[in-house]
Amino acid sequence: MNRKWLNNEKNRAENSDEKKIINLYKNTLNIDARNKQGIGPIKGMLEELRNIKTIDDLSELTLESKVESPLIEFSCSVDLKDATKNALYVESTTLSLGNSDEYVKPTEKSARIKSLAENYYNTVLTLSEYTL
């Protein structure tokens, strides 16, 4: 987290991307509040996962689902600073084309896949009413 962001938090618009990042950062570090909440925040996600019985059920999960996000990946793993604890990691998803060579030296197939991926992300952002 950029310390300047935290120091200038009061100067950020309430619904700005920077304010949202600051809130996510603070919420991640607020262990007491997270422990108090327990599994409450993920109960909906767990219920959706429990209700999956068929491939069709799995296919019906949408971008509005509480289960997945195409742009941000959450994972829980051993804390890199203390191996006796687990930590939540927030990461970007992997490259759409698989490896960086596909971007630098595109093949006909990778150029087609890149075009489809760009169209998909643009559609998702448009449908979510995202603006710059």
What does this structure look like?
With 132 residues, this protein is mainly α. The chain folds into 3 domains: 1-38, no CATH class; 43-93, no CATH class; 95-132, no CATH class. It contains 7 helices and 2 strands, in the order H-H-H-H-H-E-E-H-H. The protein has helices spanning 3-7, 17-29, 31-37, 43-50, 55-59, 101-104, 108-127, and strands spanning 72-78, 86-92. The protein has a two-stranded antiparallel sheet with strand order 1-2. The protein is extended and about 50 Å long. The two termini are 22 Å apart. The relative contact order is 0.07.
Top keywords for this entry?
single chain; 132 residues; mainly alpha; two-stranded antiparallel sheet; 7 helices; 2 strands; 47% helix; 11% strand; Peptidase_M13_dom_2; Endopeptidase
Which overall shape is indicated by the principal axes computed on the Cα atoms?
extended
Classify the beta-strand content into a percent band: 5-15%
Our count of helices gives 7
Calculate the terminal CA-CA distance, rounded to whole Å: 22 Å
Determine the fraction of residues in helical runs and give it as a percent range. Answer: 40-55%
| N to C succession of SSEs | HHHHHEEHH
For the largest beta-sheet, the strand count, sense and barrel status come to: 2 strands, antiparallel
- Strand line-up of the largest beta sheet: 1-2
Domains counted in the coordinates: how many? 3
Which structural class do you get from the secondary structure elements? mainly alpha
Contiguous low-pLDDT stretches (5 residues minimum) are: none
